[in-house]
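Supplementary Text 2. Reproducibility record for the structural model of the 283-residue chain.

All settings were left at their defaults, and a single model was retained for analysis rather than an ensemble. We include the record here because the model underlies the residue-level annotations in Supplementary Table 4.
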Amino acid sequence: MRSDQRCLPCITNQVMRSVQSAGASIEQILDAGRQSIEILSRLSLDLPPNVLTSRTLIPVLKGMGLKDPYIRLKEKEINIGNSIYPRLKKLITSSKDRLRCGCLVAATGNIIDIGAQQNYDIEKSVEEIGKIGFKIDHFKQFIHHLKPGHQILYILDNTGELFFDRILIEELSENYKITAVVKERPIHNDATEKEARSAGIERFARIITSGDGSLGIDWDKSGKEFLEAYRSADLVIGKGHANYESLIDGERDCFLILKAKCPVVAEKLGVDIGDLVFYYYQP
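Retained model, structure tokens:
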């Protein structure tokens, strides 16, 4: 997916917010903004938005000695997710179609995104589960592709939605073997192995990393273990904006679960901002 000129101020804003979250001074925040603009001027809009963001954000944070600006936020999100989990589980157990409900729960969790959408209402979103369906709904294709014993690769996204993902992973793990993918290193509030284990994902899935600390997947930097798992899996699920932006440039089909949160992605999908999407991508 090619980036859009509208991505540029968004990326600069994300970098400045990351530095701000680490408790930086006004001078440092402004300097991060200047560095972002300089780096972006040397990069191409032909890159996907997730790669453009990562290749701007990572060197700025590294140069300022900031390894994990959102560590406290991620801890808070784990606590919130843990408190909400019983309600999510109750929704599943009372549903007539547990797997479809699990997909809706996972999609709803994608509202938690400090990159594309800084403000969100988790409580309101949980209350809306089941009341709002998918604007793009390829659930039937998903069911058609599932076969007993299949290997499923589930590429995780933000820490805050891990307990929402766990609901779907639990359902899938009853009949399929799941491998969950996390980031090798911290970036934004994305899940690393530490956060995934805090959410109990390892109880239902094998955890591997992408081999990289980029948002979504940067195909030029991905690890061997991830690439082998991606190519050998019977079915691939990608969560969130960054995974959508990168997986639609991938070499194989996959299912993408997300909530459209920015005009660039919404227009690409042909939906409105706020719509839930369950999209089957075929190269």
